[in-house]
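Morning F.,

Quick status update on the modeling queue. The single chain you submitted on Monday has been processed. Sequence for confirmation:
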Amino acid sequence: MTAPPFSSSFLYWIALDFHSTDPADLARFNRFYDETHIPEVLGRYPGFASAHRYGLQVPDERGDFGAAYLAAYEVEDERAADAYLAQTTSPPETRPSYSADPPLWPDLLTHRWRVIYEKVAETSPATGTPEAIYIIGIDPPADIGDELAEFDDFYTNVHLPEATAIGGFDRGTRYALRHTLEYPEPGCPRYLVVYELATATDERIQETLRLLRAGTWTPGPTSWTRHTTPWRLWYRNISFTPRAPSPAQATARQP
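Structure tokens below.
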């Protein structure tokens, strides 16, 4: 069964920059990523159900906090996530190898971060691939202590549905950090929220931002009012790749 974006229990994110603006290089890079690299990853890890890619559309106005590209792999369950972590953190000589495409891959690529997040809550089930996503990294106060339960309850049951409604988003999904494989200092946000839009036009995004700024918000407990947002970023969808069916599945589907 195909896993649409943001439908699985775990999400493995890769954020990277591509150091060429030549249209031919960009086309070759995207083609290689979609047609070669993603199928290799999905083929090596049975628990990876699908992959979706995004390009930065609106950066964080406070600074350069977002990579130019994101790739997200839908990971079916905890067992699949742990199996991937065990393999990717094993000695280099035991890890799977991937095809290269010199000189573009990997010479012109820089990874910003590689992290696994676990789903905490969603406003509604996933139904398809959004054209645009608004992703926000959130950290509770460093000294939150016993107030974390209060913080999480407000985030999940009040703020998540409220933001989805005020912004006119199609749905919102909240995640908690499971494992950081690569991330620059001062560290990866503890929580991630993804808001989805079916339309990725600049006009639609600006209208959503206007609605969010003008919205009437529930203030929340003190623990919530002291949270920080390391980054707020808009991305547009580039591609969606489902896991290819196994030979047995393909045979079963034949009439």
